[in-house]
Each structure stands twice: as structure tokens, then as C-alpha cells.
Amino acid sequence: MSKAKQKRAKRLGFLGKFKTKDGRKADGSGPTNTAKQPAVHQLKDSRKPEDVRKQRLQDLREKQKLSREREMMKRRNLQTFQCDILQRQREFELKETEMQSLEKHVNFENENSRKAYYREFKKVVEASDVILEVLDARDPLGCRCPQVEQAVIQSGTNKRIVLVLNKIDLVSKEIVEKWIKYLRNEFPTVAFKASTQQQTKNLKRSNVPVTKATSELLSSSACIGADCLMKLLGNYCRNQDIKTAITVGVV
To answer: CB of 130 within 8 A of CB of 160?
Structure first.
């Protein structure tokens, strides 16, 4: 392109829109470089300095507000946690107070029950000539009460104690015989099986001795061992070959 045409194009404002013969744009500064160069754009803030300062100040205020909110949330969580701890502590103390009150009440009732039982037991011991201490054949020593036996012995020399080994149908004969042999070293002992008949008018009683009782008889509802017990009590009734009446207490 000649200089005259370039000047004319400048005047008309079409500089850069004309192409050279090889197809490249002509911008009046010589041939263009066909290699692509990385474009670096520098964006300049066209806002006024006052607007920039206001925006920065607003951003700072928002950051400070967020930080204050976070701090408040932390404090609230801590306060909530402390309040929860105090509430649980108050509930625990209230439950402890209630449990102590209930325990005192139960102990008071148990103490009253023990006192009432002891009064009745003392009446029975004082009024009875023979005390029958009923034991469970499955655990005789667990059923024995040495305090009861001691109280009967201390109440007078004329008091008698007889151990009644009940529920012999729930253990084998060998075990029953061993327990009788063991217990008779201390007190007279009678093997016994109470009647399991619920109808009081149909109570059965067997005259067969315990040593000769069969398994079928033991599994029946009949009472076993009553004859032996009655004979033993009859012997206590004789005083110098004179039959007298005695009082029997059962524990």
C-alpha cells in the first residue's frame, strides 16, 4: 500500500481493515508477526479511589462481623454445655436425695418387719415345748438359722428342737440319707414330704416309712414322714410314763 493510500485510510478511519496482497492485515506499522503471542491483559480498576476505599472498608466490616458471630457461637455453645452440665448435676443430686429417702424408708420398713418377726418368734418360743425347724432338702444348711436354734436353747432346758427335712421328693434317696445322718449329729431329724393336694378335704397321708417309700409314692400327692414325726412328738409327751399335752411351734 502506498503512503498516499495509507494517509487516505487514516483520514477515513479504515486503517487496519485493508489487507495486503498476501492476505495479512495492514496496520501501517509494517508486516505483522504470524506467530501467536500470549496475550497479557492488565485490568486496571477504573473506579475512583474513594469507592475503592469504601469497598475495602465494607469488606473489612463484613469480616469482622463474621468473626464476631463465630465467637458468639463459640460462647453460646460453651454456655449451653455448662448449662447442660449444671442441669444434669441438679437432676443427679435430686435422684440421690430421692434414693436416700427411699432407702431410709425401706430400711425403716425392714427394721419394723424384723422387730415384728422377732416379737412373734419370741412368743412362739416361749409358748412351745418343741420347735420344728423346717429345712429344704435341696439346701438344708442354707435354710438353717443358727440364731433361731441358739434362741431356743437359751430360752430353757426343757425346750426341744426337731429338724424337719422337707421336700425329700426333689432329691435322691442317697442324698436324703446323707443329710439325715449329718443333721442327726446335732438335733433329731425327720425326713418329710408335705402333701401337695390343693383340696384340704382330700389330703392324703401315707404310713409307709421314708426308707421304704418308692419313687411312685414320692411322686404322688400323699404326705410321707408324718407318722415318724408324730411318734417322735408322742415320745416328748410322756413324762414318767404319763401322757401329757405339749405345744409345738413351727419355724
So the answer is: yes
